[in-house]
Amino acid sequence: MADAQGTRHWDENHSRSFLDNGRYFVPERERQIEIIVDLIPPPAPGGLLVELCSGEGLLSHALLERFADCRVLALDGSAEMLEQTRETCRDQAGRLATAAFELGRRYWRTFSEPPQAIVSSLAIHHLDSHEKRTLFADLAAALRPGGVLVVADIVRPPSASGLDIAGRQWDEAVRARALAIDGDLAAFAEFNRLGWNYFRNLDGEPIDKPSSLAEQLSWLAEAGFTEVDCVWLFAGHAIFSGRKP
């Protein structure tokens, strides 16, 4: 899908491809979810946690499972993704709210109450540098004091050697997951057919605009976050966070 300027955006074809292949294509997926949840301080009873671009709902489900007294607001721009999130979290439906949004717009960044945590996985790299900086500043303003922002995303190494290492690691991770899940390499072949490895195909998908890890850590600090840190990095995928003072 493209806007009036011809800029491509995520559409339901992307959603279907991710729902079909995410379990193969996301490196150490289960470990990433565990780390994101571990970075969130226990919220006050009834506290609000927000997920940006909830996808299949696996992270929202993990938040609801870990924090039994909290509520989760799951936002996504895809009707199919929101439907899948509700299905994944159906056992905790009473504590889950979902809503459609556009990640790059600012209208949704004021919540009915300040969230205790905002999390996002594999979404923010669809924003350009200016949009990321604006998003981080807006989320810092939205969080309650002591709240955290946790981001898991693709990051772009600044050097050719770093790009090569990230590309090789991602290939190896998908190959290993295909073998572990199915016992064959069909999913790895699909990964290559789709050109999914950004680090092998930097100009292949216009909706992908990853920034470097160093840039994004600096933008978090600029937005006023403290304890800014990267806690996990593999195959060009990073988990980084900051806390609102």
Write a structural description.
There is one protein chain. By secondary structure, the protein is of the alpha/beta class. It folds into two domains: 12-156 and 206-243, Rossmann fold (3-Layer(aba) Sandwich); 160-199, no CATH class. The protein is built from eight helices and seven strands; from the N terminus they run H-H-E-H-E-H-E-E-H-E-H-H-H-E-E. It has a seven-stranded mixed beta sheet, with helices on both faces.
CATH superfamily (homologous) name of the largest domain: Vaccinia Virus protein VP39
- Counted by DSSP, the helix tally is 8
**Can you tell me the number of structural domains?**
2
Order of adjacent strands in the largest pleated sheet: 3-2-1-4-5-7-6
Mean pLDDT: 93
From the 3D structure, determine the CATH topology of the largest domain.
Rossmann fold
Order of H and E elements: HHEHEHEEHEHHHEE
Cα-based radius of gyration, to the nearest Å: 17 Å
Strand content: 15-25%
Number of strands: 7
Based on CA inertia axes, which overall geometry fits? Answer: globular
Structural class: alpha/beta
Report the top-level CATH class of the largest domain. Alpha Beta
Could you give a short account of the major beta sheet?
A: 7 strands, mixed
CATH architectural type of the largest domain? 3-Layer(aba) Sandwich
Helical coverage, percent range: 40-55%
Low-confidence stretches: 1-8
Separation of the first and last Cα atoms: 39 Å
